[in-house]
Amino acid sequence: MSYDIRIQKELINKLADSRKIVVFTGSGVSAESGIPTFRGDDGLWKKFSAHELANFDSFMKNPDLVWEWYQYRRRIINDSKPNAGHRALVELEKYLDVTIVTQNVDNLHQRAGSSRVYELHGNITRNKCTACGKRYDGEIELADNKPPHCECGALVRPDVVWFGENLPEGVYELAEEQCESCDVMLVVGTSGVVYPAALLPSAALSSGAMVVDINIDDSDHQHGRRLFIKGRSGEVLPAIFDEIKRLKEY
Ligand code: BJW
Ligand code: ZN
Predict the structure, then answer these.
(1) Is 121 labeled as catalytic in the residue annotation?
(2) Tens digit of pLDDT for each residue in 179-198?
(3) Order of strands, sheet of 135-137, starting from the edge strand that comes earlier in the sequence
(4) Are residues 172 and 148 both part of a single domain?
């Protein structure tokens, strides 16, 4: 394992002894599956406008455009597969009590086989009615590229959380409880700029957990019980899994 030896030892021993770990993920964990992140030079918000596409008022003004964008992203996600990072988190469940708290809407943790996943920002594979809330899961084929309507007559929308919207009822509170009761939290592939999700690492830290950021970009979060490993999640997470496996099976 080529990562910083101090972090490696401190983290691996702590993980191996932990009762409960939380893995908090962002779009970076799916980047190696070919799914674009949001921010940064190659991010979605460089090419597309968050203002036009990711809030309710814009959707109601131009549902055709927003549906077209979501159908485009769904095609990318449907054609992708969980990567080595997603798979390592599934394997880790053999040895540790793992809860995933994800900001991702791509369903890849579930497709990989993770058993406990809290979705903070919804799931792009589902849709719901803007008026009565009726769920429409699975793929929807658009007739003449026109946005679908519910049986109640209102527009159907992707079941994701846009800016200014509350998170799905109760899910943040459940995620926060998990973060406040874990021994180690891995914060993987997120810029940590979107609230309230961005508060979760501090909640874990204040409750005494060790918090470890894993990111390809440098971080200034490196003090006390907060550590940083620079690298791709598809490489760092399998490396962590290998070390835990070695220790547990020794
Ligand atoms: C790798 C890697 C590899 C790459 N390995 N690493 C001012 C202050 C505070 C808050 C606010 C504020 N003004 C407004 C707000 C609230 C707002 C907010 O936080 N805005 C900030 C942007 C300022 N939040 C909200 O509106 C939330 N709701 C809310 O607050 O409700 C209360 C309320 C109600 C009514 C009125 C007002 C408030 C809702 C937020 C919803 C976010 N939705 C999105 C879209 C989801 C649907 C969709 O997908 O279409 O969620 S936005 C987008 O950002 C998406 C993501 O989940 C989220 C986080 O992004 P993420 O995952 O971190 O991606 P990136 O691209 O930012 O980062 C990727 C990282 O990966 C980078 O660090 C890379 O380096 C790294 N990486 N490859 C490891 N291989
Ligand atoms: Zn309806």
Answers:
(1) yes
(2) 999 999 999 999 999 999 99
(3) 135-137, 122-129, 156-160
(4) no
Atom of ligand 1 nearest to the CA of 70: 50
CATH code, domain carrying 50: 3.30.1600.10
> Which of 172-193 are b and which e, b meaning 16 or more Cβ less than 10 Å from the residue's Cβ?
beebbebbeebbbbbbbbbbbe
The total number of structural domains in the chain stands at: 2
**How far is residue 117's CA from residue 110's CA, in Å, rounded to a whole number?**
7
- Are 174 and 212 part of one and the same domain? yes
| Active-site hit among 51, 86, 109, 121 | 121
Mean pLDDT of the chain: 94
Whether 92 and 144 share a structural domain: no
pTM of the full structure = 0.96
For residue 76, how far is its CA from the centre of ligand 1 (angstroms)?
20
Measured from CB, residues less than 6 Å from any atom of ligand 1 are: 26-28, 31-32, 37-40, 43, 54, 103, 105, 121, 160-166, 189-191, 193-196, 214-217, 232-233
Expressed in angstroms and rounded, the spacing between residue 92 Cα and the centre of ligand 1 is 26
Predicted confidence band of residue 204 (pLDDT cuts 50, 70, 90): very high
**Whether residue 202 has pLDDT greater than 90:** yes
Residue with the smallest CA separation from ligand 1 atom 56 is 103
Is the predicted pLDDT of residue 138 greater than 90, yes or no?
A: no
- Structural domain boundaries enclosing 228: 1-34+82-121+167-250
Say yes or no: 112 and 128 in one domain.
no
CATH number at residue 115: 3.40.50.1220
